[in-house]
């Protein structure tokens, strides 16, 4: 079947920036699964997926405006280290997750202090044009439970 609204899509991806530097890959684990048409992936990627089929291999070029948006200046914040969800040795330039009132958020460390870190609250991929090498592993109709939850279940999706 073709990818359309309310399909569950499983795919492998390799994400790189415009220089071809690999930023992320799913190849060292299970494919990722999402419910199409419910903003489970960034907008530009969802657009590129529409109409593709199981077994399709393609590259999707997604400009920052359809990915994580432009970088905003003045987004530096001081955060207590205890609010970081990422544990271990911290250093400037590291991408970490912090706990916020709106749930976990990806930020980048600018400076490390004794009890606090200064972070750049822009998403680490903000302002970056992205290139996704995609392989569609499976396309199937969503279950009624998945539709009512608004996300995919099973391998690569929500496990609950
Ligand atoms: Zn669910």
**Structural class by secondary-structure content:** mainly beta
Low-confidence stretches: none
Q: How far is the N terminus from the C terminus?
A: 27 Å
**How many strands, what sense, and barrel or not for the largest sheet?**
5 strands, antiparallel
Global morphology: globular
Helix content: under 10%
Mean pLDDT reading: 94
The tally of helices reads: 2
* Cα radius of gyration in angstroms: 17 Å
Percent in strands = 35-45%
Bound molecules: zinc ion
Order of helices and strands: EEEHEEEEEEH
Count of individual beta strands: 9
Task: Give a structural overview.
With 160 residues, the chain is mainly beta. Helices cover 8% and strands 39% of the residues. The protein has 2 helices and 9 strands, in the order βββαββββββα. Strands 1, 2, 3, 4 and 9 form a 5-stranded antiparallel beta sheet that branches. The protein has a 4-stranded antiparallel beta sheet with strand order 5-8-7-6, with no helix packed on it. The radius of gyration is 17 Å and the shape is globular. Zinc ion (ZN) is lined by residues 149, 151, 153, 158, 160.
């Amino acid at each position: 079947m073709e990818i359309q609204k309310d399909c569950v899509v499983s795919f492998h991806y390799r994400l790189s920036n415009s220089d071809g530097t690999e930023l992320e890959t799913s190849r060292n684990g299970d494919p990722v699964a999402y419910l199409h048409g419910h903003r489970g992936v960034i907008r530009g990627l969802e657009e590129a997926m529409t109409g593709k089929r199981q077994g399709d291999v393609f590259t999707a070029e997604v400009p920052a405006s359809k990915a994580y948006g432009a970088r905003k200046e003045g987004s530096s914040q001081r955060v207590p280290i205890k609010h970081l969800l990422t544990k271990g040795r911290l250093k400037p330039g590291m991408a970490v997750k912090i706990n916020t009132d709106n749930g976990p958020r990806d930020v980048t460390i600018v400076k490390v202090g004794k009890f606090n870190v200064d972070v750049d609250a822009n998403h680490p991929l903000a302002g970056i044009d992205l290139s996704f090498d995609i392989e569609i592993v499976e396309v199937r109709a969503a279950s009624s439970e998945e539709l009512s939850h608004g996300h995919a279940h099973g391998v690569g999706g929500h496990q609950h």
